[in-house]
């Protein structure tokens, strides 16, 4: 089954993030000029905040990966409910379609099939010379329109 691997990204504690956090703290203190010592007492230091952000980032990444894995399990369970011929056609369509290899797209594809909105064997588009000529004329008209617009803009300047 075609799928796109979910990349892992680590939290990076950068000087830019630290400066942004310091500016945030400064804005909070300036917002209430009568109580700067109370506001400053409630604020955490930069190192604690970065540690907190790193932990939050890691928990969120674990939750995202678990949610995605659960989506794949549900999609595969749904795929298993189809008859062998339907499953073969659905998997062949999934392999050749241009949708991202994501469990939500696979589930959407199966819902579309269930609702009758998905044609597993779409008609192949064959270009005729008349269609090519129509496209050429349209492109020519667009070029002419753009040239006329440029000319008009140059006349006003």
Overall outline: flat
Unreliable segments (pLDDT under 50, ≥5 consecutive)?
none
Encode the helix/strand succession as letters: HHHHHH
Mean pLDDT: 92
Biggest β-sheet strands, sense, barrel: none
* Radius of gyration, in angstroms, nearest whole number: 28 Å
Give the DSSP E fraction (strand runs of 2 or more residues). Answer: under 5%
Number of strands: 0
Structural category is mainly alpha
Number of helices: 6
Helical amount among residues, as a percent range?
A: over 70%
Model description:
The chain is mainly alpha-helical. 72% of the residues lie in helices and 0% in strands. It contains six helices and no strands. Helix 1 (15-31) packs antiparallel against helix 2. The model has no long low-confidence stretch (mean pLDDT 92).
Please tag this protein with its features.
single chain, 157 residues, mainly alpha, flat
Helices and strands in order:
Blueprint: H1 15-31, H2 36-42, H3 46-80, H4 84-96, H5 103-115, H6 129-156
Helix pairs in contact: 1-2, 3-5
């Amino acid at each position: 089954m075609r799928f796109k691997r979910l990349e892992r990204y680590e939290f990076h504690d950068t000087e830019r993030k630290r400066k942004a956090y310091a500016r945030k703290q400064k804005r909070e203190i300036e917002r209430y000029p009568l109580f700067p010592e109370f506001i400053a007492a409630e604020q955490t230091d930069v190192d604690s905040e970065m540690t907190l952000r790193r932990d939050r980032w890691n928990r969120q990444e674990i939750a995202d990966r678990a949610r995605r894995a659960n989506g794949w399990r549900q999609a595969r369970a749904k795929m298993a409910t189809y008859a062998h011929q339907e499953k073969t056609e659905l998997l062949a369509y999934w392999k050749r379609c241009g949708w991202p290899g994501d469990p939500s797209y696979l589930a959407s594809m199966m819902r579309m099939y269930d609702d009758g909105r998905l044609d597993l064997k779409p008609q192949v588009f064959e270009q005729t010379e008349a269609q090519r000529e129509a496209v050429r004329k349209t492109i020519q008209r667009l070029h002419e329109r753009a040239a006329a617009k440029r000319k008009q803009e140059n006349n006003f300047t």
